[in-house]
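Posting for a labmate who doesn't have an account.
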Amino acid sequence: MKNSYTVLMLFLIITPFAACGPTISGKDEKAFKSSKAKMEEKLDKEERENLEKALRIIVVKAMKEKWNSPEKYEGKSFDKISMEIIDGKSYSAIISYAEDFLKADRDEKIANKTAEIDSLEKDKLKAVKITQQIDAFKLTKISISEDVFFSDDPKQPFLDLTFTNTFKENLIGEYMLYINIYSKKTGELIASEGQGGTWNDDYVLKPNENFDYHQPLLHNAVQHSNLWKTAKYPITDFSPYDLVIKAYATKITTKKGGTIERPKADVTYFDAEIKKLNEEIKALKVTKATLDELELTDKM
């Protein structure tokens, strides 16, 4: 029992002295430099580097604090806030403070990215649902024919599209179709155009009825090939003309659901963003958030 008492007394006596030692003064720039120099006299090279890292991290902490609470720190510079943070702190306290911030910052980034993924997942589900609805106005046939726009015009290639209403209800009101034409060899977009209008009460597209589009092939697509004069119409294979034609609805309207517009971001966008965020979270989770992981540079 006596030995235990002696050990306890020694611990109580030694601990205050161990905790004491050089501290940084944040009173002003002169006091800071002087106290820092005294502290560095007691440190080895690695400790001096860690002190410098920690002080720079604390400046980042000060910047974040002022950004998040501008009213609280109104009129105070980043340096002033940093000085207040480190004032009276020992080497070990400064290191601990900086590493606590690194850990908290890492955990906050993980939480924010996780929340962003949750939000993207919800937006993706909405986009999928809307896309499925609008794709119910389905492209069922595509070909190129030869026709004239006016009776005295020379014949030219016409694009023929057939869309089928696979909805269980009538389509009426505004609609918009989009046509993109690409080079099959390079994937380059050659021509693009949106065409739309309004179906009024006199023209309702009922379930399983077709809507036919018959318009001159877009000028740049015609110019892209010199085989039109020898073509055998109708053309259903566009490969010899180095063309890939995609057509889809970007807007349709039903009485029940109102106007439905295709989302600007498709599923591939959401999948790519979610994948990127998951990779960033994975990288953050393997970090220890310690000063040892940081490299001391002039730009740090």
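Reply:
Got it, the structure tokens are right above this. DSSP finds seven helices and seven strands in the chain.
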